[in-house]
Amino acid sequence: MFLSGNKKQSVKIRDQSVDLRETKDLYGRFMVLARSNRDIDMKNAVGKYEFTITPRALFAPNGSVLPCTDKSKLIHCLEKVKINEEVQQTQAQMSAEHGDGPETSLTPSKSPQIAVVDGMVLVQQLAMKQGTISTVKDLGQHFNDRLLMLTADFDEVILVFDTYKADSLKQKTREKRQQGKDPIQYQIDDKTNIKHIPMRRFLSHEQTKADLTEYLAQAVLNQNANSQRLFITSASGSTRSNRSKMCFEENNHEEADTLMICLAASAAQRCPKARMVIFSPDTDVLVLAVAHYEKLCRNSAIHMASGTVEIEPIWKALGQEKAGALPAFHAFTGADNVGRFSRISKTRWFQQYMKADKDIFSALVKLSDEGDVQQEVKDALEKFVCSVYCPKGIDIKNIIDLRWHLFCKHLAESSKLPPTVDALAEHIERVRVQSRVWCQATVMWQKPFDPLQHGYYQDPNGKILPTTTKVAPAPQAILEMVRCNCKTNCTTQRCSCRRHNLACTDLCLCGSECENDADCGGPNDTEESDEDL
């Protein structure tokens, strides 16, 4: 069942780090002790303890969160919901045409066109630089040309970049993209020669990207200073435009995903009847647009790799309650900073989400609130997790009972079991950090939670890492199991098991003549000492 290697690893348990060596005999110890008369509750042990160093439902063996490889499936799930809504709208229109409803105008009036563009996505698309790009100035010109081509039919262009912070939770994800190579920092100015530098290498250092985003934001404004179209750029917390009379608040958004929604909501206040298109391939942006749709232009859409996705039909199909809880649902079931559940697909989660009770939506929304998580919220989310892990025809609503059932009836491996209650509690705290940011997407100055107070800790090197669990991987009786090395029959206090008032087990090194095992009645307080013999 609990298979792993013998790699030694440091694990954060409560307020201290403990070095453990995970071995296959950890579970073997449990089975031997369970057979003995030692006080081990098998159901409680399986239900409360992972029996692995890291909770395999949420983490890889090295302690890193499981990568979200199927986030894009949520796009297809939402598009399917939209299709069902469009079918209902078509039926309603047919009824109206037959005199069953009010007449509607089929000639829409001309409205302003607003484009919101993720600038770094556009930069990534320049991975294959043209031969004419020799300097950073050439790169800025080429970037502007691509932006103008993409937004040729729009009256207003909002260009948004990520902000790069040294203590970011995204640092781990960005390090993986470097594929083990050391980043190289380049100076960003007009004359910097980048002709023979691959774009991946050029963008490998965080400071280079930070400087480049500011450079490109200003370059776009300079090159479109006299344009009749409105250009707005935002980088490193500063938002500017090519109109000198327009002023914008400073912002502290780290993610371009949330800043795009924030500036889109601001644009909706200026032009509520505009046609707005957000250019981003990211699932997170679609989720945020649906959740905050009421603050966007009614005629809003997202241009993704699969095509243009209209927001209104999805929002109407989900309803206000499900749409409002969607960011927390997305973070809970699998997001970059938070990770995902092992072997549970995004599609499976969404199917369960669509038929969940109202208390689930209420619990998800409350995750972004100030203060500690209420027990009713924890219970609702535990029930939600159980509903996904339960086999067909089984209805178990608490994790301890479900882990025991899957262990007994299905011989489930640790990665197929739901996380323990404590591991889930730490996951919920990490979800709160991400959910807080996403739920404040429409405000300029966010008030995020401190990660170190919510499911993360800082290692000696200063890196912020996820806390896997605050409970030991197995009961203390197993981690600190007493076994004797007696060469005789274990009748005296020299036997470590007898000295601790414990019966010897199969793991002890005493022989068949042992008189302290379960068959002999265990330790006897009235035994004689060697001197009495």
Query: How many helical elements?
Result: 18
Biggest sheet statistics: 7 strands, mixed
Structural class: alpha/beta
CATH-derived architecture of the largest domain: 3-Layer(aba) Sandwich
The proportion of residues forming helix, as a percent range, comes to 40-55%
Poorly predicted regions are: 1-7, 17-26, 98-108, 525-533
Chain oligomer state: single chain
Whole-number count of domains: 3
Report the radius of gyration as a whole number of Å. Answer: 30 Å
Fold-level CATH name of the largest domain: Rossmann fold
- The CATH class name of the largest domain reads Alpha Beta
Strand content: 5-15%
Order of strands across the widest beta sheet?
A: 6-5-4-3-7-8-9
- The residue-averaged pLDDT reads 84
Count of DSSP strands: 13
Instruction: Choose one word for the global shape.
Output: elongated
The rounded distance between the terminal residues' Cα atoms is 48 Å
Strand-helix topology:
Layout: E1 8-13, E2 16-21, H1 25-35, H2 42-48, H3 73-100, E3 113-118, H4 119-124, H5 136-150, E4 156-160, H6 171-177, H7 199-202, H8 206-223, E5 230-235, E6 238-241, H9 256-270, E7 275-279, H10 283-291, E8 299-304, E9 307-310, H11 311-333, E10 334-335, E11 339-340, H12 346-354, H13 358-366, H14 375-389, H15 399-410, H16 421-439, E12 456-458, E13 464-466, H17 476-479, H18 496-499
Parallel strand pairs: 3-4, 3-7, 4-5, 7-8
Antiparallel strand pairs: 1-2, 5-6, 8-9, 10-11, 12-13
